[in-house]
Every structure is written in structure tokens, then in C-alpha cells.
Amino acid sequence: MSKFDHIRPYYDSEVNEAIRGVLHHPMMKALMSFTFPDVEPSVWEEQLKKTHSKRDFQINFIYPAVQKVLKKSSEGLTTSGFEKLERHTPYLFISNHRDIILDTSLLNVCLHDHGLIMTASAIGDNLVQKPVLHTLSRLNRNFVVQRGLPPRELLQSSKLMSEYVRQLLLHENRSVWIAQREGRTKDGNDATHQGVLKMLAMAAEGEDTMAYFKSLKIVPVSISYEYDPTDALKMPMLMAKANDEVYVKEKNEDLNTLLSGIMGQKKRIHIHVCDVLDTEFDTISAEQDNNNKQIQALAQVLDDAILSSYMLWPTNYIAYDLLHGGSRFAAEYTDKERQLFERRLEMRIDIENEVMRNNFLAMYANPVVNKMKYQDA
After folding, report:
1. DSSP H or E run through 170
2. pLDDT, tens digit, 9 for 90 and up, residues 224-241
3. Do 190 and 180 contact (CB within 8 A), yes or no?
């Protein structure tokens, strides 16, 4: 028994049995039928029965599934920065977080296309409550982040996860993906939660914190969708926040959001991987004399990298102008693009509700506000 057994993905020796256990599940059949619509079920069933490693499962089944999602729900994926990464080198990718499944799936498609090490990826236990989803996530090299624990258990869970991330990066030569904060960004303001960094630092084992972080080869990642397929689904939570109310999730809300994020229209998508952080850690160590200030400074370094390299789309500029009642960025979009976005606004929310309208527009406009800070600097 390994101490990581209840959070880790499957070992390759466990893969075939796990696949056979979900082979005839309706969700597996739906996934395969979507991915291979012109193939007889017996063909992909036989192929799955011959699969004995996570890599084969990812390359032969998940990779084409993601390509199909891109074809059906987007106008294409573009990338930048991957050419700077080295093959056979594991990295810790810390990313802004827009979509539950696709953020990490798209990153892994890009890593595979560039001949780089794919990631083990953190996933909240709220998303893998159903046994079939838990199985598929473990086959797809996800490790589980336990949520909603009492303080003492949360501390133990965080320490275990930090040790697991260290194990993957420094001993198993495996890249890792983790979001910069717990949960997706709801309002378009991407910000690194210091708690994530403090969790990662728990495994430093007496080593200088910044020196330890430097050894992890941290790469900030900026992911940008032209349309957020779950924009309207985020409204109830934002409205509750605006009304100073406690938001309670509906039953199956996470699953519905997951499916909407995968199949909903995104238009264009861009992923930028920033430079590997290196000398930044030396600067932080030299300028900050205590751990909390160092963590705070590192969070700012990550934010600066992610926000300044974020790809802005016409939708972002349109939302900014609509929100502020002006035409400051009119040169960044066409009349047709503005009309399409206004139509989307009318179809997805009650535009008579000013608070809801402003929240919806701010979700798209905030990345413009954030990026302007760097362009004006």
C-alpha cells in the first residue's frame, strides 16, 4: 500500500482491469460513440480490451475525443511558447482556470503534439463522485484534491498532495498541472491563491522554500476562450455574491457544468505557456525576508505572467465597451461581432436585470482591465 493510494491515478498494472470494469457503462459508450461515430462499437471495445497503460488510453482514446470536441465546439486552438520547453523534462504548470475538464485536456494535447511530457492533473473530488467518472479520471492521469474537509484533515490532505506533487516531478519524471486557485474563475479575474502555493511548499522538507520552488521548474500558463460556454451557468453564484447570500449548488450542478464546458460553443481558444520561472526566485529571496512575503511575491510573479500573456478576443473588448457605454475598443471588433455578442447576451441572461447584465459583461471585460495594467506600465 502506498500512502498516495486514495488520491493517485491508476498504475499501468491496474489499467486493463479498470477499463473492463467500465467498458459497458453508458457514459463510456457515449464517449466512444462521440469520438468514433463511424466505427462499429465492437472495434473500439476490442481496442479498449487490449489497452494496458494510461498513455495508450490517453493517446488512443482521450486525444481523439478532445480533437472531436475542438472540431464540434470551437473554431480552433492556437498556442504559443511550447517551443521553449525541453523534451523529457517535467514541469509544474500553474494555470488560470476556465473549464473543469478542457483546460488540462487541451494542455495535454498541446504537450503531446510538441513531444513533451504530459501532465498528471489535479481534480476536485466533487467532480468524481460517480464511480465511472472516478475511474475515467484515474485512467486519464488525474489525482484527487479533497475538498470541504475540517481544518485538521485539510492540513493532512494538503501535506499529502504536496508530497505527491514532489514525488511526481522530482522522482517519477512526470509533469503536473494545477490551477492557480481552487475552482474556476467565475468573474474573469485570474488571481493566484496563496493557499495553493503554501500547499505546494509543504513538501520542501526543510529546504529553502524559494530554492525548492525553483527545483520544480514552474511554468505559468494562460488559457483563453473567446466564448465561455458556461458563462450563463456562473450567474447564479455571482448573483448570490452580489446579494451577499450563501450560494448552494443544485444537485448534479458540477456534472452539468462539466458537460456544458466540454460541448458548449467556445469559438477560438489560445494557450500560452510562459517562460520557466528561474531567476525570479533568487530575486524574491533577496528582497523578501520571511516566508509569507515570499509566497505573496511569487503569487504576484505568477499573476503578472498569466495576465500579461492572456489572449484577448473581440468578445472581451465588446464586453468592455458595453459595460462602460463607450467605444474605446471599437477598432478591435467588427459590427457583426458586436451584434453576435449582444445576441448571445440576450439569449443567455435576463438583460433587464442590471446586476446580472453587469456581472455577465464584467466576466468578459475584466481580462481587458487586467491586461491594460501591463500595457500601461
Report:
1. none
2. 999 988 887 776 676 667
3. yes
Give me the phi and psi of 356, to 5 degrees please: -65, -45
Q: How far apart are CA 97 and CA 182, in angstroms?
A: 9
The amino acid sitting at 139 is L
Yes or no: say if 185 and 96 are a contact pair by the CB < 8 Å rule: yes
- Mode of pairing for the β-strands spanning 267-273 and 142-145: unpaired
User: What residues contact 223, with CB distance under 8 A and at least 6 apart?
Assistant: 95, 96, 97, 98, 103, 106, 107, 269, 270, 271
Give me the domains of the chain, ranges plus CATH numbers: 73-311 (3.40.1130.10), 315-375 (no CATH)
How do strand 175-179 and strand 92-95 relate by DSSP bridges? Answer: parallel
Residue 227 CB contacts under 8 Å (≥ 6 apart), including other chains: 264, 265, 266, 267, 315, 344
**Structural contact between residues 139 and 15, judged by C-beta atoms closer than 8 angstroms:** yes
Element (H, E) at 289: none
CA distances from 364 to 3, 182, 313, 341 (A): 42, 20, 9, 11
**Residue 259: pLDDT over 80:** no
- The C-alpha atoms of residue 346 and residue 340 are separated, in whole angstroms, by 10
Question: Which amino acid would we find at residue 250?
Answer: E
Q: How confident is the model at residue 364 (pLDDT cuts 50, 70, 90)?
A: very high
Mean pLDDT of 149-164: 94
Whether this model's pTM surpasses 0.90: yes
What pLDDT score does 127 carry?
Answer: 83
> Degrees (nearest 5) of the Cα angle 362, 315, 77?
120
Q: Rounded to 10 degrees, what is the CA torsion of 248, 254, 259, 261?
A: 80
- The residue among 84, 68, 32, 30 whose CA lies nearest residue 263 is 68
AA letter at 179: A
Joined grid coordinates for residue 76: 480552433
The whole-angstrom distance between residue 291's C-alpha and the CA centroid of its chain comes to 27
Phi, psi of 127 (to 5 degrees): -95, -5
What strand order describes the sheet that includes 142-145? 74-80, 267-273, 218-225, 92-95, 175-179, 119-124, 142-145
